[in-house]
Amino acid sequence: MAEPVGSEALDKKYSLGVSPATIRNEMVTLTKLGYLRQPHTSAGRVPAPVAMKFYIDQLMEERQMSLADEVKAKEEVWDSRNDLDELLEEATKALAERTRNVAVAATDQGKVWHAGYSNVFNSPEFSDLRVCANLFSFLEEAEKLQELFFEREGSGSPIDVLFGEELGWPELNPIGIVTTHFKAKGINGALGVIGPVRLSYTTIIPVLRYFRNLIEEVARA
Question: Which of 28, 127, 155, 193 is the most buried (most CB within 10 A)?
Answer without folding.
Answer: 193
